[in-house]
Amino acid sequence: MLKTNSNRVVKLSVQGKVAYPSGSRRFNVDADGRPFIAPSIGGISYNVKVGDPAFGWAGDHVEPGVSTLVDEEKRYNFATTSYHFYSCVGNEAIVVSGDAKKKRGVVTGHHGGAEHVMIDFADEVLEKLTMEDKFLVRGWGQGLELVDYPDIHLTNLDPNLLGKIKIKETGDGRIEVPVAAVVPGHLMGSGVGSLSMGTGDYDIMTTDREEIAELGLDKMLFGDFVAITDHDNTYGRSWRRGAVTIGVIIHSDCYLAGHGPGVTTLISSAKPLIIPRIDKRANIAKILKIGRFRPAKKKGKKGK
């Protein structure tokens, strides 16, 4: 079992609210010069969930589940950035207002620029939520370390989820991590160069559809764990030969040049210490049984 400092990782409460869906009355232009207008980030999504395909939606940068933030007018103020930073993938979220009060969900990622935190809830909870509802997140994960692997860095990852990913130690100073797909580093676009490894995401570029299909990346699902080769996310997002980063798919494919499915980064090493192992079960929805893989609610017995 991997040794961590989880007993020393601070757990703090942060609170957000539903983010209004982004809407524009104006056309944008895709990577091939074609105008488009389509749904995008934000809102309460009733039919897009973790575990669903990240490709094929009639939308751009679509976020699964419930998109949340603190302040739409001041996305980079202290409260908003704090909420974005402390909310780690796998954290528990609790509805603290409205008809769905006390219902629980799971943080599935955060989206840079929009400063959104995405949370998965069961359908019966989604039906009760309104745009005015608020959510308390038990923020736990920032500062998490692998005690025996000082050159492997963790960010944005709930310690309990780390224990469920089924990482294997190879015995030679490396770890083997299950992933649903391997993304070549040259495909990483929007967000490269950012120093915000502890928040947000960066995008897999999908303009070259033939290469994306050849690599099988068009089959990725929201919530898939992926490995990005030759990319270092320890002290900034950059290309570095031999480096490997593990992340999770948090938003859909995009029409814009330089964009595509977003990846919130979780594990990274500047050295070749992380070995990706293909496993189609490597998805947060499958591991935690949430989103599209949430078990159907059992119906009560007749007469009850």
In terms of topology, how is this protein built?
Elements: E1 11-18, E2 28-29, E3 35-36, E4 66-69, H1 78-86, E5 92-95, E6 104-111, E7 116-120, H2 123-126, E8 134-140, E9 153-154, H3 159-162, E10 168-169, E11 175-179, E12 181-183, E13 202-203, H4 209-214, E14 225-232, E15 238-251, E16 262-269, E17 274-278, H5 284-288
Parallel strand pairs: 11-17, 12-14
Antiparallel strand pairs: 1-4, 1-8, 2-3, 4-7, 5-6, 5-8, 6-7, 9-16, 10-11, 13-16, 14-15, 15-16
Helix percentage range: under 10%
Spatial order of the strands in the main sheet?
A: 1-4-7-6-5-8
What's the CATH architecture of the largest domain? 3-layer Sandwich
Mean pLDDT: 95
**Largest sheet, strands/sense/barrel:** 6 strands, antiparallel, barrel
Structural class: mainly beta
CATH superfamily of the largest domain: tm1086 (SG structure) domain
Order of helices and strands: EEEEHEEEHEEHEEEEHEEEEH
User: What's the CATH first level of the largest domain?
Assistant: Mainly Beta
| CA-atom Rg in angstroms | 19 Å
Q: Helix segment count?
A: 5
How many separate domains?
Answer: 2
How far apart the termini lie comes to 45 Å
Shape: globular
Which residues sit in consecutive blocks of at least 5 with pLDDT less than 50? none
Question: The CATH topology of the largest domain, please?
Answer: tm1086 (SG structure) fold
Number of strands: 17
Strand content: 25-35%
